[in-house]
Design brief:
Order of helices and strands: HEHEEEEEEEHHHHEE
Strand order of the largest sheet: 1-6-7-5
CATH topology of the largest domain: Helicase, Ruva Protein, domain 3
Number of domains: 2
Structural class: alpha+beta
CATH class of the largest domain: Mainly Alpha
Largest sheet: 4 strands, antiparallel
Oligomer: single chain
CATH architecture of the largest domain: Orthogonal Bundle
Strand content: 15-25%
Shape: elongated
Number of strands: 10
Distance between the termini: 26 Å
Helix content: 10-25%
Length: 279
């Protein structure tokens, strides 16, 4: 699933190419991406047609297109993409919704697995996702405050990093990378983190994602690309995630994979010592 850096790459592409243009028409090729819209695809088309795109904003893994006072929220899910195309271009497989713009281009929403979606939220242009916490790219983000709340939770550090109500935008990839850099085992209880270590972890998560953003995000397959169809290259710089059996770049021990919340955690067993009673 795209995490904060990947979604920010998409947001910047949308902002650059779509801001100031008007949606002249909408073609819904599959109803599922607009499943939350009242009445259905025909109403979605009617409500979006003629609207001017005033900007594109983001919080965590959510981005939204500003349409006057309203917000068109886009969640990319596991495989959602936006592509800009000329009207005559062949449709990429799994193209679901097409926004026809006044400059004779098309903004296409592509989603193979269809866990993503598009939803118009009237009157919420400033922030249509208030339940999502600030992310490390937000100027108002306070690492010390987040770290203090993390230490007060009765959970483990990786669960806390993935809690979008505490810190948004962090997913499995960048959680593993931040934990590797700070030498913290993913199953460490949050209350066992000292104040300085907790702040270091929160700040490191932001630093890792900043570096990933500079490389266009992390791509392992064609499910994440930017609006030009290009992949990100941060996967080459990963120290832990996806490197099972490869040597740790710090100590040389093989990176291992552990089961975590029905997914995987990658770590160095030498650099990231497990808490007592845990593997």
């Amino acid at each position: 699933m795209p995490e904060l850096p990947e979604v920010e790459v998409v947001r910047r592409g949308l902002e650059r190419h779509a801001t100031g243009h008007t949606i002249t028409d909408v073609t819904v090729l599959h109803p599922r991406p607009v499943r939350y819209h009242p009445i259905g695809p025909d109403a979605f088309r009617a409500d979006l047609g003629g609207r001017r795109i005033d900007g594109v904003l983001r919080r965590g893994k959510y981005l939204w297109v500003v349409l006057g006072d309203d917000a068109l929220v886009a969640h990319l899910g596991m495989s959602g993409q936006f592509r800009f195309n000329a009207p005559g271009d062949e449709h990429v497989r799994n193209t679901r919704v097409i926004f026809h713009l006044d400059d004779a281009t098309e903004l296409r929403f592509v989603d193979q697995r269809m866990f993503g979606g598009l939803e118009l939220r009237p009157g919420l242009a400033d922030c249509p996702v208030p339940h999502i916490a600030l992310d490390p790219f937000d100027p108002a983000f306070d690492a010390r405050s987040v770290a203090a709340r993390m230490r007060a939770k009765r959970t483990t550090v990786k669960r806390a990093l993935l809690d979008q109500r505490l810190i948004s935008g962090v997913g499995n990839i960048y959680a593993d990378e931040a934990l590797w850099r700070t030498r913290i085992h993913f199953d460490t209880p949050t209350q066992e983190l000292g104040p300085r270590k907790a702040v270091e972890l929160v700040r490191t998560a932001g630093e890792v994602m900043e570096e990933a953003l500079e490389e266009g995000g992390t791509s392992f397959d064609s499910l994440y690309v930017n609006v030009n169809g290009e992949s990100g290259y941060f996967s080459r710089a990963l120290n832990a995630y996806g490197r099972e059996g490869e040597p740790c770049r710090r100590c040389g021990r093989p990176i291992v994979r552990r089961v975590f919340m029905n997914r995987s955690s990658y770590l160095c067993p030498a650099c990231q010592r497990a808490p007592k009673g845990r593997v």
